[in-house]
Amino acid sequence: MNRPLSAPIGILDEHPEWSARLIAELNRRGLPWEKIDHSNHGYEPRERRPAYAVIVNRTSPSSHTRGHGGVLFYAEPLLDYYESLGVPVVNPVAAYRFEKSKALQLGLFERLGVRYPRAIVVNHRDQVLKVLDRVSFPLVVKPNIGGSGAGIVRLSTREELEERLPGLDFGPDGTAGGAGVHRVRGWTASPSTPSASSVRAMPASTSARPTSAKRRQRGRPPIWASARWRRSRGSA
After folding, report:
1. Is 191 exposed, middle or buried (0-12, 13-18, 19+ CB in 10 A)?
2. Of 36, 20, 18, residue with least CA distance to 28
3. The pLDDT of residue 81 is above 90
4. Which of 39, 48, 228, 231 is deepest in the core (most CB within 10 A)?
5. Using an 8 Å Cβ cutoff, are 75 and 57 in contact?
6. What's domain 114-199's architecture?
7. What's the whole-number mean pLDDT along residues 129-156?
8. 9-99 maps to which CATH number?
């Protein structure tokens, strides 16, 4: 039997439409909810009484494209505050940090042994030219924080890169005169393109860890499984 919630479900979302289907389903089930627009918000860390039964974090890295750039960074302490109160959070702060940072995602791929196109992380336009000996053209420059493809640029030649470099958008976490963390990577062509293998840069190591699906087939917990998840299933 479902027990009534002691407080509403908090939906953390600055977008006017993205939570519509979730809200419709909550209404259908008669569950209380409250939309939290954290593009215009405040909280007091000293207040220790939870106002919500659950927080659903729908913060998007693309919020800055809607004039809500502050949300990207404000969400982290806000989520940490809710978690400190013991409120369950869907997409908690640890997951959200990976969601909004391509640089952190690359580090995670490397630690898990997941294959990915070779990428160089830089935080200044000058560094883009300095790493060209490690990537090949065509290449792609992406803001570390983008969302919905924002700021992605494909460059075919060094000459084009040098011409467009001063105007590249380095995203909302810019440092050093508006530059920000980017990843520069070789362009991955379509699988049907004959030259795809020549422009796709992948790690040469063949010792990558098995995927989570293969680990489950072998009766082992996924790589990402928490200690609590493992203990609940009697796994080491």
Report:
1. exposed
2. 20
3. yes
4. 39
5. yes
6. 2-Layer Sandwich (3.30)
7. 79
8. 3.40.50.20
Structure-token pair, residue 84? 């400190």
DSSP 8-state secondary structure symbol assigned to residue 5: P
Question: What tokens does 231 get?
Answer: 């203990």
Cross-strand partners of 18: none
Q: Under DSSP, is residue 169 helix (H, G, I), strand (E, B) or coil?
A: coil
The secondary structure of 202-225, three-state, reads CCCCCCCCCCHHHHHHCCCCCCCC
Amino acid, single-letter form, for residue 190: S
Global pTM? 0.68
- Domain map of the chain by residue range? 9-99, 114-199
Structure tokens at 190: 């379509």
Which residue in the block uniquely carries the two structure tokens 């011409």? 163
Angle subtended at Cα 54 by Cα 50 and Cα 55, rounded to the nearest 5 degrees? 95
Q: Which two tokens stand for residue 235?
A: 């796994």
